C-alpha cells in the first residue's frame, strides 16, 4: 500500500514529555531535565537530535528507547501508549523494535565480538546456529570478518562501534537509537559509521541519531535542535522512500522466548565463562562449598563408624543383658550363694525376660578316636534366644530336658567339623563329655567372626542341670547368670527391681549385678551425640560456604551492573537476568558439590586405610550434595533478585 508520509500515523509520538531527576527519598533536589517535549517521528526517518552537552539528549534517547519512563507526558509507540506496557512488554519492544548504539559502545567485556552481537537474539529465542550465522554475517557486512572472536579490548574504538551497530541490527533493528555514535571515534572511523547509518536509513531503518556536533547532524535528513530540555528548532518531517514495517504491537510480550532448556544452557554457558574469567574468586568460593560438603560426608561417616563400633562391641547380645553373680555383702562377710529359687523369683519379675544360669569350663570331650579339650557351656534352654542364635540342624534342648537332667548336647559348627570331619551326620551320635555319655540332638548355625574372644563355634551346649550333675561335680551355684531385661527401655528398672527382690529374699546384698546393657546404651548414646555434633559442625561449614556464594554473587552483581544494563537494553526480561544469576550461583555450588563429594569419599577412604572406622551413608552424600545445590539457590536468590530489579538506565550508567 502506498501512503504519503504526512498522513501516516507517527511511529513515535511524544506529547509534553517531562523528566525530573532527584526529589525523592535520597534527598537530592528535584531537577527537571526535559521541559515538555512534543515530537513526531515517522517510520523510516533519519533524524538527528543535536544540542550542547547537558541539554538532555541522552535522557530523551533513554525515554525513546523505553530504558526509562518520563515523569509526565505521553509517549505513543505505533499508536500504543508506552505507559500501559508492563516489564515484559517493554523488554519485547527493546528487543524487537529498537537497536541501541551507545557512545561508549557498551559491549560485554567477557564476550567475543560475535557473542556480543548474538545477545539480543538470545533473548528473542533465535536458535543457536541461526544466531551464530546471522551475527557472523552482520559483522562480515560491517567489515569485521576477521575479528569475530576478538574480545572488545582487542578491538579499536571504530571496530567496537561496528560491533555495537551489528548488535543493534541483530533482531532487525527497525529503529536505531544512536547516542553520540561518533563521539569517541577518530574522524575516519566516524565518517564510516555515518556512512553505515545512511545505508541503513536507505534500507528503511528509522535512525535517531544524537549528537552535539552540528556537522554530524547535517548528514541526517531531519535535524531537531534541543536546548536546555526544550526543542528549539525542527527541520520538519522528511520524505521517506521506504520504511520497514513497525512491529505488531498486538504481539507485544507474547513471544515465549527460547525454550526453557535453551535458556538454561545459555545461562549455564555464560555462568561457566564467568567462573573461568574469575578463577581465583571462583576457587575460593568453591573451596567453601567443597569443605562444607566434604566435611558433612566425612564427619557423618566417622560418627557412624564410631557408633557402629560400639554396636559391634555389644556383640550379638543386644542391649538388654545384665550379669548376676554372687559377691561379698557390703558389710563384709562371706559371699552369698544364689539359689535356683532366687533365679526363678527373678525370672518372675515383669521387667525381666529370660534368666539363664551358666556353668562353663574346658573339659575333655571324646568321640570315636578324637579327643579334645572343649568348652562345655551348661545353660538353660533360653540360650538361643538370649544369644539370638539359630540352630542349624536338629533342635535345641527343652526346659523339660533341663529339669530332667537329660544327657543331650547341641554342638557348635566348628565342633562338628573337628569331630565329624568326614561330614557324617552327628545327630543321634553319642559323645563323651568328661566321662558322661551325651546324645547329639542339634548343631548350632555358624557364628563366625562375631563369636568374640571365646570361639562359640567350637563349644558344646548342654542343659544346665545335666552340666551341673553330670559334668561339673554337682556344683551348687552357676558361674554367673545372664539376666535379660524384658525390653531395652526397662533395663534400668529391671536392675532396680532385681536388686530389691534379691535383698528382700536374702536379707543381704551378697550378690553383684553387672549391667552391661546400661553401659552399652550409654556408649551408644554418647556416640550418637558425637555423630550429631559432627553433623552439626559440618552443616555449619556448609552454611558458611553458602554465605560465601552469596557474597561472591553480590560482588558479581555489583561488578557486572553495566552488563546487566546492556542485556536489558538489548531486550532481556527481568526473569532472564534472574535466571542467569541464579544459574551462576547454582553452577558454582553444583561444581563445589561434586568436588566436595569426591574429596569427602577420598578423605574417608584414606581414613579407612589408616584403620579409622568409617561408614559412608548414601543419605549423607546425597543430602550434602542436595544441600550445596539448595545453598546455591537460596543464597543466589537475593543477588539474582537484586540484579533483575535494576533499572536499565541506572544499570547502564554504572561503571
Ligand atoms: P546530554 O546527553 O545532552 O549531554 P543528559 O541527558 O545526559 O544530557 O543530561 C541532561 C541533564 O540531566 C544534565 O544536566 C545531567 O546532569 C542531568 N542528569 C542526567 N542523568 C541524571 C540522573 N540520573 N540524575 C540526575 N541528573 C541527571
Ligand atoms: Mg549524552
Automatic annotation (TrEMBL):
Gene3D superfamilies recorded: P-loop containing nucleotide triphosphate hydrolases (3.40.50.300)
InterPro entries in UniProt: AAA+_ATPase, ABC3_permease_C, ABC_transporter-like_ATP-bd, ABC_transporter-like_CS, MacB-like_ATP-bd, MacB_PCD, Macrolide_Exporter_MacB, P-loop_NTPase
Keywords assigned by UniProt, alphabetized: Antibiotic resistance, ATP-binding, Cell inner membrane, Cell membrane, Membrane, Nucleotide-binding, Translocase, Transmembrane, Transmembrane helix, Transport
Membrane spanning stretches: 283-302, 532-554, 585-608, 614-637
Its membrane topology: Multi-pass membrane protein
ABC transporter domain: residues covered: 12-253
Chief localisation class: membrane
Highest taxon listed in the record's lineage: Bacteria
Keyword Zinc tagged: no
Annotated compartments: Cell inner membrane
Record-stated family: Belongs to the ABC transporter superfamily. Macrolide exporter (TC 3.A.1.122) family.
Protein name: Pyoverdine export ATP-binding/permease protein PvdT
Gene source species: Herminiimonas aquatilis
Amino acid at each position: 500500500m502506498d501512503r504519503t508520509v504526512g498522513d501516516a500515523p507517527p511511529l513515535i509520538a511524544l506529547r509534553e514529555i517531562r523528566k525530573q531527576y532527584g526529589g525523592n527519598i535520597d534527598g537530592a533536589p528535584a531537577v527537571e531535565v526535559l521541559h515538555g517535549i512534543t515530537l513526531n517521528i515517522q517510520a523510516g526517518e533519519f533524524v538527528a537530535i543535536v544540542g550542547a552537552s547537558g541539554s538532555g539528549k541522552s535522557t530523551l534517547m533513554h525515554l525513546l528507547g523505553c530504558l526509562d519512563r518520563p515523569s509526565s507526558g505521553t509517549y505513543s509507540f505505533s499508536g500504543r501508549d508506552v505507559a500501559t506496557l508492563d516489564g515484559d512488554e517493554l523488554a519485547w519492544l527493546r528487543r524487537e523494535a529498537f537497536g541501541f548504539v551507545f557512545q561508549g559502545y557498551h559491549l560485554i567485556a567477557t564476550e567475543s565480538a560475535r557473542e556480543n552481537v548474538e545477545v539480543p537474539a538470545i533473548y528473542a529465542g533465535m536458535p543457536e546456529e541461526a544466531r551464530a550465522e546471522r551475527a557472523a554475517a552482520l559483522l562480515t557486512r560491517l567489515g569485521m570478518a576477521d575479528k569475530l572472536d576478538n574480545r572488545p579490548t582487542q578491538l579499536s574504538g571504530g571496530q567496537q562501534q561496528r560491533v555495537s551497530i551489528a548488535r543493534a541490527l541483530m533482531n532487525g533493528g527497525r529503529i536505531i537509537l544512536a547516542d553520540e555514535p561518533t563521539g569517541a571515534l577518530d574522524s575516519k572511523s566516524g565518517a564510516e559509521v555515518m556512512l553505515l547509518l545512511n545505508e541503513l536509513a536507505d534500507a528503511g531503518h528509522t535512525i535517531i541519531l544524537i549528537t552535539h556536533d552540528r556537522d554530524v547532524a547535517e548528514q541526517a535528513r531531519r535535524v531537531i535542535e534541543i536546548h536546555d530540555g526544550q526543542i528549539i528548532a525542527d527541520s520538519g518531517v522528511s520524505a521517506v522512500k521506504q520504511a520497514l514495517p513497525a512491529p505488531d504491537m498486538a504481539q507485544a510480550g507474547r513471544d515465549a522466548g527460547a525454550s526453557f532448556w535453551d535458556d538454561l544452557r545459555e545461562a549455564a554457558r555464560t555462568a561457566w565463562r564467568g567462573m573461568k574469567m574469575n578463577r581465583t574468586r571462583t576457587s575460593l568460593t568453591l573451596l567453601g562449598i567443597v569443605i562444607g560438603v566434604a566435611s558433612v560426608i566425612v564427619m557423618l561417616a566417622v560418627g557412624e563408624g564410631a557408633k557402629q563400633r560400639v554396636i559391634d562391641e555389644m556383640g550379638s547380645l543386644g542391649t538388654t543383658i545384665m550379669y548376676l553373680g554372687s559377691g561379698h555383702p557390703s558389710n563384709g562377710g562371706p559371699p552369698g550363694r544364689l539359689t535356683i529359687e532366687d533365679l526363678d523369683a527373678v525370672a518372675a519379675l515383669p521387667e525381666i525376660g529370660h534368666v539363664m544360669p551358666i556353668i562353663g569350663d574346658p573339659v575333655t570331650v571324646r568321640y570315636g578316636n578324637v579327643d579334645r579339650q572343649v568348652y562345655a557351656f551348661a545353660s538353660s534352654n533360653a540360650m538361643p534366644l538370649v544369644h539370638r542364635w539359630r540352630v542349624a540342624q536338629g533342635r535345641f534342648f527343652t526346659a523339660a530336658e533341663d529339669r530332667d537332667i537329660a544327657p543331650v548336647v547341641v554342638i557348635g559348627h566348628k565342633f562338628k567339623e573337628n569331630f565329624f570331619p568326614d561330614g557324617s551326620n552327628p545327630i543321634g551320635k553319642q559323645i563323651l563329655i568328661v566321662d558322661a555319655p551325651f546324645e547329639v540332638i542339634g548343631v548350632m548355625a555358624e557364628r563366625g567372626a562375631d563369636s568374640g574372644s571365646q570361639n562359640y563355634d567350637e563349644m558344646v551346649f548342654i542343659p544346665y542341670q545335666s552340666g551341673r550333675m553330670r559334668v561339673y561335680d554337682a556344683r551348687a551355684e552357676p558361674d554367673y547368670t545372664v539376666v535379660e531385661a524384658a525390653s531395652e527401655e526397662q533395663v534400668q528398672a529391671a536392675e532396680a527391681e532385681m536388686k530389691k527382690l534379691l535383698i528382700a529374699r536374702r536379707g543381704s546384698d551378697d550378690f553383684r549385678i553387672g549391667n552391661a546393657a546400661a553401659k552399652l546404651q550409654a556408649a551408644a548414646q554418647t556416640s550418637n551425640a558425637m555423630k550429631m555434633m559432627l553433623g552439626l559442625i559440618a552443616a555449619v561449614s556448609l552454611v558458611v560456604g553458602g554465605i560465601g556464594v552469596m557474597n561472591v554473587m553480590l560482588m558479581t552483581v555489583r561488578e557486572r551492573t553495566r552488563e546487566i544494563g546492556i542485556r536489558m537494553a538489548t531486550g532481556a526480561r527481568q526473569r532472564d537476568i534472574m535466571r542467569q544469576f541464579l544459574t551462576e550461583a547454582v553452577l558454582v555450588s553444583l561444581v563445589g558439590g561434586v568436588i566436595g563429594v569426591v574429596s569427602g569419599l577420598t578423605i574417608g577412604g584414606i581414613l579407612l586405610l589408616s584403620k579409622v572406622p568409617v561408614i559412608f551413608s548414601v543419605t549423607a552424600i546425597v543430602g550434602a550434595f542436595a544441600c550445596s545445590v539448595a545453598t546455591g539457590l537460596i543464597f543466589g536468590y537475593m543477588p539474582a533478585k537484586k540484579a533483575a530489579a535494576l533499572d536499565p538506565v541506572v544499570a547502564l550508567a554504572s561503571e
